[in-house]
Amino acid sequence: MNPFNTVTRQNWVLPVSILSMVLGFMMTAAWVTKESRSRLNYASGTQQDRVGSGTIDFQEKYDQLSDEVSKLRAEKTKLERALGDQGSSSKALNEALQEMKMQAALSDVEGPGVTVTLKDSAKGGGFEVDQAIHDFDLLRVVNELWNAGAEAIAVNGHRMAIGVSIRCVGSVIMVDNIRIAPPVVIRAIGDPQTLNGALNLPGGVLSEIRSSDPTMATIELVRKMRLQAYNGSTAHKYALVAKDAK
Amino acid sequence: MIFIPIVALFIGSAIAFIIIGPQKGIVGQYLAVACLAGLDTILGGIRSGLEGKFTNEVFLTGFISNVIIAFSLAWLGDKILVDLFLAVALVLGARIFTNLSLIRRIVLTKWQDARERRRLQQRAAAGQTQAESTG
Q: CB of B35 within 8 A of CB of A48?
């Protein structure tokens, strides 16, 4: 038998093998991993750059101002109390006022509840968008907590009062126009068991975050905690109490 | 001979794993379709090789054009919101099946032929020795 004949007859082996190697390369590149199924759909635009953003330098100034606000609010409460001391009718009025203030998140409240801590994953590698906490994560947790019957919620110490927004500007999360940085601590007053159950629902808000990295979301049941009053602006320009409702 | 490309496949994926790792997002999806096209061409190459009809040029151009066409069809489908991805997957899937079954038949026939030949040779040899001993 002619040895060259066998060589020419199997000349397909080399090119096929080489391209087969290329194919193997491509297949690995296309391999679907857990990280490639992403929560990207929720994040948009510059949000994705938020990973690893630096420290927030407005913190100090903010703390200063909010201290001042709480001081003034406390003074106001004192004045109201003094007013209440004057007579029984004004006392009743004052009680109603305090009740309204609590409803509006303008007074400190305390009670049992849960503490939810959301933080960026420290795992590294994988899909970066999934490993950061985003504004929509906060929104959904807060929403779920309200739904589960939370009576007061604070995100990193900022009370969720009427008109408080959670959004994302550039690469930072803003709560009521104040920049916050992970870890985000959401504290809610309500029945701890119910709140915990609502957050841990299968397919619920936290399950998605936990699917990226279980350490990103932790819940703690608290027997007693105190939430500070809302200390942002309460000025209003347009809304007036309707005349016939007074 | 068929095993060499298969081994090469694993070598290639090992290299990719070390160098780049799985790609993320939408590119990975297009690449998946391109992979189907590549697989189809490779199997086609093996088949034609076994049939003795293999030509280098046809195989090379087939591989490259198939991959590019599949990739761009999937991309186009994404842009015009028609799942052309499915069309590609369906056609290539069918072709992969055809190629695989043909390869199987060729290999099986070869193997059966070889066995038959050996049997005949043994019988002929036995016949010869028998003829010698009786003769």
A: no
Rounded to two decimals, the pTM is 0.48
Is the residue at A209 inside a domain? yes
Cβ–Cβ < 8 Å for A227, A152: yes
The C-alpha atoms of residue A22 and residue B67 are separated, in whole angstroms, by 11
Domain extent for A186: 109-227
Closest residue of A to B16, CA-based? A25
Q: Which residue out of A17, A33, A34 would a mutagenesis test of the B interface target, given it has the greatest number of B Cβ atoms within 10 Å?
A: A17
Strand order in the sheet with A178-180: A166-169, A172-175, A178-180
> CATH number, domain at A183?
3.30.70.1880
- Smallest CA-to-CA distance from A16 within B69, B7, B79, B22 is with B7
* ipTM tops 0.85: no
* Residue A31 covered by a domain: no
As for how many domains chain A has, the answer is 1
Q: Do A30 and B39 touch (CB under 8 A)?
A: no
Q: Is position A38 within any domain? A: no
CB neighbours of A85 closer than 8 A, spacing ≥ 6?
A91
**What DSSP assignment string belongs to B66-124?**
HHHHHHHHHHHHHHTT--HHHHHHHHHHHHHHHHHHHHHHHHHHHHHHHHHHHHHHHHH
Q: What is the pLDDT of residues A107-163, one digit of tens each?
A: 889 999 999 998 888 776 666 677 788 888 889 999 999 999 999 999 988 898 888
The type of residue at A234 is T
At B28 the pLDDT is 65
Tell me which residues of chain B, numbers 41 to 100, contact chain A at a CB-CB cutoff of 8 Å. 41-42, 45-46, 48-49, 52, 54, 56, 59-60, 63, 67
pLDDT at B101: 94
Q: Which residue of B1, B16, B59 is in closest CB contact with A28?
A: B16
Query: Does residue B52 come out as left (phi exceeding 0), alpha (psi in the -120 to 50 range) or beta?
Result: left
- CB contacts of B59 in chain A (<8 Å) are 12, 15-16, 19
